[in-house]
Design a protein that fits this description.
Length: about 425
């Protein structure tokens, strides 16, 4: 005697055969008590299987997404029909899911991928549709970018490619701003993935981006990109320091460590012979064991004179915590610290006019974004806001160029958004 089948399909009839398919299926299935259900009739929406690909640009530390208008969600979405999602599309006849993932990624994002990781396969809406989605994860480099992606496609889609930081994506996840299930699943996968394989920030190439007020003369606000020791021709460098004014080790990866090493006298092999900046800072600190947040102490630039630096201003911007627990920064004090640095630099710039040694430019760090633990998306607006407040109280300053240091693309984008939020500021041609 054969085993009774769990499901018996009585009939299957296609009631609509257009771009999408609609089947009417009559069936019976085994119930949990072992008996067979009465015959039922259901409509099955058959649109084929699809792929979705979460693309992570490791060079820039950004997630590559797409945005487009979807009329089915017009009346229900938060954004009036425009949905942000991962690159996705229908698997064409004869294609494997992998081949479709590679094609859709290239068409929609402009990146060429070859071996994406298969994350999951799931049904999009099993109550009414047979569609399966094959979700992939792909890591790319800038060298893999073969086109700009997006644009108007033959199918009539109008796609915009967008790139955001993982922290921005996870914040959207936390605030329930993501409406695409593929992106929700992919975001959770990425969040878990980055816990064990965090991306290493890739420095930008050294460069300068400048902005100026549209209708009046005045100082340039700009961004210096790349490592700080690649910056040239800025008169005053600012070092974000702890309340103990103890500079980071020379082998450290912080701005403090870079300034300390860059200003030191070194032998032919690059070994430090005289720790010029750190020694003078300790001397100027004197018997004080610590200083208050916002305290500014000036030192000589040491060997940084070769870079065009005239002086270094050290500002206490992070608090020392218990031994062994590092330092912590408070976003509420960022604007105050930057304001005090700018006021101090301006006072010195005006004072040196008589001696024809006028300081014209200053380089500000995104304080608190390193060991301080603050997010660049929060710090950049605070730094730029402090610059705006300084210009409001000093409309014709002696400082004619105020730069913010942006090590990575994420830093640069955050700085640019903040600068362009200032009233009537525009980017100057490169």
């Amino acid at each position: 005697m054969g085993v009774d089948p769990k499901v018996v399909v009585r009939s299957r009839r296609r009631v609509f055969d257009g771009f999408f398919k609609l089947d009417e299926v009559t069936f019976s299935h085994r119930l949990y008590d072992g008996t067979a259900s009465p015959d039922k009739t259901s409509l099955v929406f058959e649109r084929g299987d699809a792929v979705a690909v979460l693309v992570f640009n490791r060079d820039r530390g950004l997630v590559v997404l797409v945005e487009q208008f979807k009329v089915p969600v017009l009346d229900k979405s938060q954004s009036g029909g425009w949905i942000t999602e991962v690159a996705a599309g229908i698997i064409k006849p004869g294609e494997t899911p992998l081949e479709a993932a590679i094609r859709e990624t290239r068409e929609e994002t402009g990146f060429q991928i070859s071996d994406p990781e298969h994350v999951a396969t799931f049904f999009s809406s099993p109550g009414g549709s047979s569609e399966r989605i094959f979700l992939f994860y792909a890591v790319v480099r800038e060298a893999d970018r073969v086109s700009t992606g997006g644009g108007v496609r033959a199918e009539g889609e109008d796609i915009r490619t967008i790139e955001i930081s993982p922290s921005e994506l996870f914040e959207q996840l936390r605030t329930k701003a993501i409406e695409d299930p593929k992106l929700i699943i992919a975001a959770y996968h990425l969040k878990d993935r980055l816990k064990f394989d965090p991306p290493k920030p890739q420095p930008l190439r050294p460069g300068t981006i400048r902005y100026r007020h549209k209708s009046r003369t005045g100082p340039i606000i700009g961004i210096k990109t790349g490592p700080i020791l690649a910056v040239r021709g800025v008169d005053v460098w600012v070092n974000s320091e702890n309340t103990d004014m103890m500079m980071d080790r020379i082998i450290g990866r912080t701005i403090s460590a870079s300034i300390r090493y860059g200003g030191a006298e070194k032998d032919d092999n690059g070994h430090v012979v005289s720790d010029v900046i750190a020694d003078e800072l300790r001397k100027k600190l004197g018997r004080r064991g610590f200083v208050r947040i916002g305290t500014v102490i000036e030192t000589v630039p040491g060997a940084l004179r070769e870079f065009g630096v005239k002086r270094v201003l050290h500002v206490a911007s992070v608090e020392g915590t218990e031994p062994g627990k590092g330092v912590s920064a408070d976003l509420a004090t960022v604007e105050t610290c930057i304001g005090k640095v700018l006021d101090e630099a301006e006072k010195r710039a005006r004072g040196f006019r008589i001696l024809a040694r006028r300081d014209r430019s200053i380089l500000l760090p995104l304080i608190g974004c390193g060991d301080g633990g603050l997010k660049v998306e929060d710090v950049a607006p605070a730094v730029v806001s402090a610059i705006g407040s300084f210009l409001a109280r000093s409309p014709t300053p002696s400082l004619t160029e105020i730069y913010v240091l942006a090590f990575t693309q994420v830093h640069a984008q955050a700085c640019e958004r903040a600068i362009l939020s200032l009233p009537d500021f525009t980017r100057l041609p490169d």
